[in-house]
């Protein structure tokens, strides 16, 4: 038996891969199929096979519910802010980092910029909450200039700014890696040729570096938009509090709060499904558009 | 190439910009360190900048004297170490098999893995799956379901493919089975990628709180991030006995626990940095 196994490489390889494949099936595909409970009145004790089927009831409820309109609006606005401010940040940083000649300085800067990525959202949240406290450092600084102290964390108007800013603080440096790797792959001859042709720094960036980065930018943008309705429950839950709930409640936190805490499994699974379907449509549609217009695509 | 005057000005401007950026990155952390080392009087009346005022180690003494902190640190170390080993087992076996030309069904399996990039796992069905496996309120719920990710499999597979196939062929001519080749040749030759994926996963495991938040009910099983979150978000300072006459306060204790939770990351960061750029680069090629 063992001898036979040793001589049969494909079978042996299949057995080696088996734990991983089972893991994928159990923890990725079974939950995906578990989405069917969105069409049921799911009862935990009866399971999927024993629960009542209700068709599209939960989806109808969802679209009629005023709460849903609000969380959808919050989710989209937050995503939009991130797309406009957080998405280009690593690109700009990478373009600037690339211009630094002094190697040691560049490495030091990178070390510092990458670091926050490795902190948890609890820690980043904790740090920002401390900074933005009424007696915190931000207010101390402002009052130095004679400005009023503000309850930053309790005000609806600042919630999204805080969330997007802390996200940039945490991830912008890390996000440069992908762009720097792409820049490193550019043939240096292109730069030399451009310089011989008399291209200045701006023109070299415009006509050599940016085109080289285009594939990375488009792939990242497509993935970002495909996850447009994902807000990151970890980070939103850190900064949300009852006073800002009206703008802080996004799909992810709603599913967590209403779905898990109040055990509304079926209804919130329907909302989760809505989220994935929108993401899927966006990613497929935009991928096609990108392929047509720029020739770049993710598959 | 000579450095022109305009170039020198440009470089100076860049340096200034990045020094400011560096300060923006570091100031928040320095502030928290300063706060954790200040006494309660100064901390409560606020106005601590980058230097501790009324320097004292009392909040750390208090934190170090708390069994719940030690217990949650123990839980976190446990899920980080064991979870990383589990992750490396699942990731390396799958990645190795997929890197071998004779692996049956390879294109289909690869497609199956890439699809999980696009569809994120739905939260409620994920919860119900873990629940139906009777893993709720056990540390398995945090270690096992997160062990395998598409991204890590692809990075590792790319690495295995980069190894010289002659060595594997030689091994198989010498009578090594696929198990033998994996165990005796692939693993020893792949220390860098094991270190990369291992460190990535370890940091993720150390940092994650959401799965612990939804799966763990018993306080004895709380990882440090959950304890810290309780202190920050829910102002869960009950039992910390913060009196008027103590030299620590809620603020300094929170800051202290933040620092305690950052320290291990700071300790592994130099090693991480050695590996992560390569790992992220491989990932970016494939994404």
TrEMBL record, chain A:
Spans through the membrane: 12-30, 50-68, 80-101, 113-132, 208-229, 265-286
A cellular component annotation (GO) from this entry: plasma membrane
Keywords: Cell membrane, Membrane, Transmembrane, Transmembrane helix, Transport
Membrane topology: Multi-pass membrane protein
GO biological process: transmembrane transport
Location of the ABC transmembrane type-1 domain: 72-286
Superkingdom of this protein's organism: Bacteria
Pfam families xrefs: BPD_transp_1 (PF00528)
Classification via CDD domains: TM_PBP2 (cd06261)
Subcellular location: Cell membrane
Gene3D superfamilies given in the database record: MetI-like
Family label: Belongs to the binding-protein-dependent transport system permease family.
PANTHER family: BLL4140 PROTEIN
Protein name per UniProt: ABC transporter permease subunit
Originating species: Paenibacillus roseopurpureus
From TrEMBL, chain B:
Classification via CDD domains: TM_PBP2
Keywords: Cell membrane, Membrane, Transmembrane, Transmembrane helix, Transport
GO cellular component: plasma membrane
Gene3D superfamilies in the cross-refs: MetI-like
One GO process term, biological-process aspect: transmembrane transport
Bilayer topology: Multi-pass membrane protein
Domain ABC transmembrane type-1: from-to ranges: 73-269
Keyword field contains Iron: no
Annotated family: Belongs to the binding-protein-dependent transport system permease family.
TM regions (residue ranges): 12-34, 75-96, 108-128, 134-155, 253-272
Source species, domain of life: Bacteria
Organism encoding this protein: Paenibacillus roseopurpureus
The name this protein goes by in its record: Carbohydrate ABC transporter permease
Taxonomy of the source species: Bacteria, Bacillati, Bacillota, Bacilli, Bacillales
Pfam families named in the record: BPD_transp_1 (PF00528)
Cell compartment(s), UniProt: Cell membrane
């Amino acid at each position: 038996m063992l001898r036979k196994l040793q001589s049969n490489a494909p079978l042996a390889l299949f057995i080696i891969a088996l734990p991983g494949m089972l893991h994928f099936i159990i923890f990725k595909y079974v939950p995906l199929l578990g989405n069917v409970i969105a069409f049921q009145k799911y009862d935990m004790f009866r399971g999927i096979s024993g629960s009542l089927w209700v068709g599209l009831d939960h989806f109808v409820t969802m679209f009629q519910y005023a709460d849903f309109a609000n969380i959808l609006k919050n989710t989209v606005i937050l995503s939009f802010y991130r797309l406009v401010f957080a998405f280009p940040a690593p690109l700009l940083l990478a373009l600037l980092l690339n211009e630094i000649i002094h190697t040691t300085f560049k490495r030091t800067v990178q070390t510092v910029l990458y670091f926050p990525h490795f902190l948890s959202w609890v820690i980043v949240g904790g740090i920002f909450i401390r900074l933005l406290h009424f007696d915190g450092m931000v207010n101390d600084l402002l009052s130095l200039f004679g400005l009023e102290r503000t309850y930053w964390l309790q005000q609806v108007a600042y919630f999204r700014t805080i969330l997007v800013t802390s996200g940039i603080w945490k991830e912008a440096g890390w996000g440069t890696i992908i762009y720097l790797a792409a820049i490193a792959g550019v043939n240096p001859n292109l730069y030399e040729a451009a310089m011989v042709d008399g291209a200045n720094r701006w023109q070299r960036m415009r006509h050599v570096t940016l085109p080289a980065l285009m594939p990375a930018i488009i792939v990242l943008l497509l993935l970002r938009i495909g996850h447009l309705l994902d807000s990151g429950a970890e980070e939103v839950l850190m900064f949300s509090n009852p006073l800002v709930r009206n703008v802080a409640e996004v799909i992810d936190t709603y599913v967590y709060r209403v779905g898990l805490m109040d055990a509304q499994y079926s209804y919130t699974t329907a909302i989760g499904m809505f989220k994935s379907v929108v993401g899927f449509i966006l990613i497929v549609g935009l991928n096609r558009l990108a392929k047509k217009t720029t020739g770049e695509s993710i598959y | 190439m000579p450095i022109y005057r305009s170039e020198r000005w440009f470089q100076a401007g860049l340096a200034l910009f990045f020094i400011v950026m560096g300060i923006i990155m570091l100031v928040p952390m320095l502030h928290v360190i300063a706060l954790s080392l200040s006494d309660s009087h100064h901390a409560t009346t606020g106005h601590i900048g980058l230097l501790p005022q009324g320097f004292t180690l009392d909040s750390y003494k208090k934190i170090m004297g708390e069994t719940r902190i030690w217990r949650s640190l123990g839980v976190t170390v446990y899920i980080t170490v064991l979870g990383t080993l589990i992750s490396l087992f699942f990731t390396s076996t799958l990645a190795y098999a997929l890197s071998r030309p004779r692996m049956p069904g390879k294109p289909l399996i690869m497609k199956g893995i890439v699809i999980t990039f696009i569809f994120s796992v739905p939260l409620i069905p994920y919860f119900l799956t873990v629940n139906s496996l009777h893993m709720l309120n056990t540390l398995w719920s945090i270690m096992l379901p997160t062990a395998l990710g598409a991204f890590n499999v692809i990075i590792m597979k790319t690495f295995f493919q980069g190894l010289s196939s002659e060595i594997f062929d030689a091994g198989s001519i010498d009578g090594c089975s696929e198990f033998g080749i994996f165990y005796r040749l692939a693993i020893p030759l792949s220390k860098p990628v094991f270190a990369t994926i291992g460190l990535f996963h370890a940091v993720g495991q150390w940092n994650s709180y959401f799965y612990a938040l939804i799966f763990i009910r018993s306080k004895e099983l709380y990882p440090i991030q959950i304890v810290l979150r309780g202190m920050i978000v829910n102002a869960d300072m009950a039992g910390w006995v913060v009196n008027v006459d103590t030299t620590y306060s809620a603020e300094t204790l929170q800051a202290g626990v933040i620092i305690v939770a950052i320290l291990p990351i700071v300790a592994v960061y130099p090693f991480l940095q050695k590996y992560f750029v390569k790992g992220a680069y491989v990932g970016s090629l494939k994404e």
